[in-house]
Amino acid sequence: MADNSNTRNFRKLLSEIIDTEKTYVKNLEVLSSRYLDPLSTVTFLTTLEITQLSESLREILKVQRSFLKRLERVIEEHSKVFSSEREDLVRNTVLAVGDVFLFSADQFKIYSSFCALYSRVQDILNSGENEPLRHFLESKNETKEHCNSLESFIIQPIQRILKYPLFLRQMAGLTLEKSEEHRHICKACDVMQCVANHINEMQKLSAEFGESFRSLSAQDLGVRDLWAERPDRQHSADNIPVIKAGYCVKEGGKMKSWKRRYFVLNEYGLFYFTSEERRKTTFRNARESIFYTSAGSMEHYKSGYCTKQGGKWKNWLSRYFVVNQDGIMYFTSEQSIEALGVIPKNSVNGVQEISPSQFDRDNVFEIHTCCRTYYLQCENHDDLCEWVSAIRRLLPHPKIQLNVGELCTYSAVHWCNIRDIVGKKAHACEIATSVFVFRSALAIISRYKQNTKEDRDGATGSTGSSGPQVADLFRSIIPADDILVTEETDDMQDRYTWSVTQSYLDDLPPRTYKFCTSSKEIRSRFVTAIQDINQRRT
Question: Is the dihedral of CA 30, 33, 37, 41 positive or negative?
Fold first, then answer.
């Protein structure tokens, strides 16, 4: 330190860091216990994002408690710095503080998950139409002051992690420019700025690919599902490699008449069409669910009568509902043997209670699916809670969670054998493919390049905007213990190839993806990251 004023300012800064850190950890505990943990169990919210945010906060709290203990240990071991003017004491304290930040820098990267979820959760919590949520938040803020509101607490992790480089920059300004302590604290400042930059990068990545990551996390890892891997509904039926195809005569489901149909068997299942020509423009999945047992005799999580709003006429009619491991079915009555409607398990995206003012009816909840929203009314609130709990058992509990906080590496790649997997009409030059290596899995996401997408959409009025509005053409997830990675030897200039093979799945043969990157360094990064996650799993 050059003079006494710098020493005094250093003491003030050190006190500010430790005092604000104690307050911050206390506020994290309040945010978790008062708001996020209770919100993870309520009936009036679809809880997946809230639960993820709560889990992320628990990890942050664990890191911050450890960080605070290290800072307190430094203050305890160098307590004389607050009463002595000796330069060696100040220098050693600065070095010790820098060490604490350098040690914790990698751990602070877990903030990426929280920050990526923040904007999505904000949209959910700021919904003015959710009256039960508004009453809940008001009841938790007894003082009615903004500083005690959820909005005030939930933004603090983002503010705090971006504050650390500023603290260190101030500390560096109080040291002699060519001194050892100045270089050390500048190094800590640079590392923490890299952490902040990493978090900003992960937020942008989550905004662009977050919806794709959530869809991949919800996939059943034991099968290859057509609409899960190929969400682009304009994807023509003849653009998938075929195992066998041809005409058969099929019995009708309702009229029992026999008609000639064109069948296609591929790795996703058995499909049928009116004719071979019709196959090029439409899909018809032959694996439809028809039930020939009475509704009351089915094994179920819950069953009973609810009043349901019609899909077309919006009238409210009593229906008998059954929730079981396959999904939700509803019937005219308990004695009915054929379902009026079926909601498959994999199409249920969420369920939550809604405000009575929306339909001027009490005890109404909504079921979100990929196609529509169903509205059901129960006799009382206890019954509503039972239905919501039963339906939540259908929601995906992924074995693998694609979380940007666990992202090891990612990059855009050239997919060399895309036509072997996506189909003969897929051209790699028109498609942008990105590969993401997480600690638990590898994800592949392909989208049409923006200029190509605009040409294809043409008259449909596509906006051509970038980012989250670009739909996935193909996406797949491969668990870490199912991956075999190989470096290829047929390298060319600016084309360094490598392949990923997924082991046997659902009695289907292995699937090999062949990629190439523009540099050896990128390929090496991918190969090393995949080998590392394989070793962790074993």
Answer: negative
Chain segment 295-318, per-residue pLDDT in tens: 555 567 899 999 999 988 889 999
CATH numbers and ranges of domains, the chain:
4-203 (1.20.900.10), 227-280 (2.30.29.30), 295-392 (2.30.29.30), 404-537 (2.30.29.30)
Closest C-alpha among 515, 476, 486 to residue 267: 476
Written as one string, the DSSP assignment of 108-136 is: GGGHHHHHHHHHHHHHHHT-TT-HHHHHH
The CA–CA distances, whole Å, from 486 to 440, 514, 526, 535 equal 19, 9, 10, 15
* Radius of gyration from C-alpha coordinates of the chain: 29
Q: Is 245 helix (H, G, I), strand (E, B) or coil?
A: strand
User: Tens digits of per-residue pLDDT, 197-219?
Assistant: 998 898 889 889 988 988 888 77
- In whole angstroms, what is the distance from residue 499 CA to residue 449 CA? 23
Name the nearest CA neighbour of 472 among 200, 121, 210, 113: 210
Task: Indicate the pTM of the whole model.
Answer: 0.68
CB neighbour class for 335 (10 Å; exposed up to 12, middle 13-18, buried from 19): exposed
